[in-house]
Each structure stands twice: as C-alpha cells, then as structure tokens.
C-alpha cells in the first residue's frame, strides 16, 4: 500500500486526508501518526486555515454586497432628484423657498416636489429624505446649483451635436434682471437635418458695456468655449441701435470683417414697432385712440376699486343693451 501512495514528508506540501481515496485513508492516517503526528497537526492547521479563509471570503462578500446596495441607493436618489430638477427647469420655476426648515408648510418647489414624487414611488421614498444618509441627501442649495449646471452642460452639448457644422444665424438682444447688470442673450438659428428651422437659446452673457467691441469680445469668448466659428455664420439679427447696425464700428461691421457672408437682418419685431409709432404719430384719430386707451389702463390699473368700478359700469351698460 505504501508503494502505491507516496507520502510527502514536508508538512507544507502534504495533502488533506480527505483528499485521498477512501480505501487508503486509514493507511495515510497511520503514516502521519508514525511521522510524529506532524501530518495530523498539519491537517488540523490546514482545516483551521480553510475556515479562516472561508470566513474572510464571507466578510468580503458582505462588504461588497453592502457597497453595491449603497451604489444602487445613490443611483436611485440621484435619478429622482435629477427628474425633479429637469421638471422645474422645463417649467421655468424657482427652486428655493422662503422658509425651508423642517417645520415649514411650504419649503419651496424643489423640496415640496421631491417630497410629493417620493410619496408616489416606493423605490424613491426608501432612498431620499430621512431615509438617506445625513451627509448624502443631495438637497443642499450648492448641490442643486451643481446639478443645474450639469443639466446646462448636457443641454448645450445636445444643441451643439444637433447643430454640427451647419450654417447658422446669430440672434442677439439685451436683457437685465433684478441684479441690475447689463446682459446679452445669444440665440442660434439653423436648419436641422429634417429641414426644420430651429432656434436654440445658448446663453446669457454679462457684458461690462454695450459697445460693439465689448459685445464682439463676449461673442468670441462664447464661440471659443463651445467650439463654434464666426466663419460658419450666414446671418446676424439685432435691433436698429447704432452700436449694433450702423455701417462703421458696429457689431454688424465687426463680424462682417471676419465673414462677409454673415448678412445683417433688422429685427422684424423692432421694425414693426417703428412702423406703428410712425403711423400713430401721423394719424390723429389713431393717436387719440391710443392716448385714451393708455389713460384708461393707467387709471384703472392703479386701483383695484377703480378696476372693479369700471367692470361694473361696463356690465351694466351691456345689460341695458341686451334688455333693449
């Protein structure tokens, strides 16, 4: 029997008794005992090592499973919050509330809509609000701004991908808000691959002054940021202000120096306004009519009582006409 089965003397290389065939296990056990019990001790050590190894693998599996669950919860929380942000951005609604404390009855559009959305979806309610880790609820104003900026980047990337290398027209107008800063709105107009005329709002750029040079620098900076080129322009549309449309040293002329194909088109809405003003000034009847209408609006709009009185007088007048 000993000639058929080779016994390894080195304990580090000896196999477990269970690894031998059933018919030779008694012989192997006797040989291990004859060698001073080293084999048995080594066998016991091997068994303990395997137990520790299995325990470590169980701990690692539990750790990986917990880590995977954290990732799933984070992904669900982020997806739910992004859906709320996309809805508020699409509707142009404010995010913040006047009182966002836990005792407030109206914490603002973002928090209230997230609360409503989580109440309608069991998968979401389990990962947001009080069910989320205290340092990972993702509802802080700073986090909201970061996610909004991420949406802006993705939206702009989609617009640029749709634009591609097609010819386009640049549309500009000034704008200002409660911050009392001079700003410029930039819109790109182009024809997509389906032959549809598309107008996409690109950005609102703060400008220090409204000089043609300052506006041109702002456009160049924005085009460089998005990888656009003035050479690809085939049109530019502004109002009739002198800094925009005059023949020399205007924004129109500065762009046409780089690209003579970027033809200037006067804003149609502004043209209509100018025509309307001229017509009103020439026709005395129309001028008087507009003055009367303006006076009525100013008088009635300045007081709720006056507005109600005007509505009641008009209602009584129509009622008498119907009776006749």
Break the fold down into its secondary structure elements and pairings.
Elements: H1 25-34, H2 38-91, H3 109-120, H4 122-125, H5 141-163, E1 168-175, E2 183-191, E3 197-206, H6 212-226, E4 233-238, H7 242-245, H8 251-258, E5 263-266, H9 268-282, H10 284-301, H11 304-323
Parallel strand pairs: 1-4, 4-5
Antiparallel strand pairs: 1-2, 2-3
Helix pairs in contact: 2-3, 2-5, 6-8, 9-10
In a few lines, what is going on in this structure?
It is built from eleven helices and five strands; from the N terminus they run H-H-H-H-H-E-E-E-H-E-H-H-E-H-H-H. It has 324 residues and is of the alpha/beta class.
Please name the defining characteristics of this protein.
single chain, 324 residues, alpha/beta, Nucleotidyltransferase, domain 5, 3 domains, 5-stranded mixed beta sheet, 11 helices, 5 strands, 56% helix, 11% strand
